[in-house]
Amino acid sequence: MINLKGYIYKTWKTKGEILNKLSFNKQVNERYLRKMFQRNNNDFAQGLTDMYVVHSKDGYKLTCDKNEILASINDNYNRALSQLSLYYKVKKRVSELNQLSIDDKDINVSELLEIIGYEQ
To answer: What separation in angstroms does the CA of 53 have from each of 3, 45, 56, 82, 106?
Structure first.
């Protein structure tokens, strides 16, 4: 695993800047970078490291500043609530659709997508 401290320690870097710095390693892509951040932050939660990767509109930064960490995890919390809310709304809608019966009417795919509120 690549040591993040040498790349994002105490200064904000965008995802593009980090990936560019790590471009010597062909295995590093956006997905791998997110996994590195996640692994580091899981280690922080378990007390294995004292640095946390925070995010903001400015990018990413490795920090031990309590206020920056709290702001970052509060954003994570709000995102999680939004995703959970969407999950329950969609699950309810799918349940409603399962209760509909299609008689002998011809419904094309675009009409069906419109019924469920899918935007193309």
So the answer is: 12, 11, 10, 22, 53
